[in-house]
Amino acid sequence: MSQLSEPNGVRTVIFDISGTTLDFGSRGPVVAFVKLFARHGVAITEAEARGPMGTHKKDHIWTVLSDPFVAERWLRANGAAPTREDLDRLYAEFTPLQMEVLKRHCDVIPGVPEVVRQLRARGIKIANTTGFDTGMMVDLVRLAGEGGYTPDLWVCPDLVGKGRPAPWMAFYAAQKLNLYPMSAFVKVGDTLADVEEAHAAGMWAVSVLRHGNEIGLSRQDLDQLSPADLEDRMSRARARLAAKGPHYIIASTADLIPVVDDITARLARGERP
After folding, report:
1. Superfamily, domain 12-26+107-268
2. Which of 95, 130, 204, 262 suits a disulfide with 186, CB 3.0-4.6 Å?
């Protein structure tokens, strides 16, 4: 029997992982990308590593390689412009590297376990979509559970054939959870690709700022900022995310519950994403 009733509120929240539920500042993927390129004599900046964040990691690597400045460095270091064969080799190297790095970047972001508890008290299911393939997730899933974060479903791009901004992971989650319509789903993430995924799937899009990719600082580094510097970084991150048109922008995942309640009220009035 399906889980559809007349839309009476939010039925599922789909979270991103790094920078949204785990890994304050989304540090793990950046460390892995910088190390990967360094192995091949190419120095990339954190900003270059972060640019395509949220997409499938193979797509992410190719986007970085395709940047003219990075491609020029690759040419100087390796004697030829980057090719798709280089991409395949890099991705094969990246998988074990990312798995090793993620073991040190699986901290559960403050407030997330309480948000999960409150969502479950409302009968709302919890899923994750990500840019990580399933093989990268073994230790992450275990460590997330030990830290107090256990969603109902993890969904990776290799399960559906394509990552964000395509909506297939969200549709897969809906099918597996046997819940619809997509207008009763909320996507919470910290990247531009998360917003694009939400729009493509017909979900409500919620962007988080403080611990996400657009600011990209560890909790300790963030706490050391002056109030003026913090506000400046928050404002610039908010502007970048707002350009993609999320329905809500919040400081932290810990601030999600009032947004979910507001969306439930909007659904009751007949509004849709």
Report:
1. HAD superfamily/HAD-like (3.40.50.1000)
2. 204
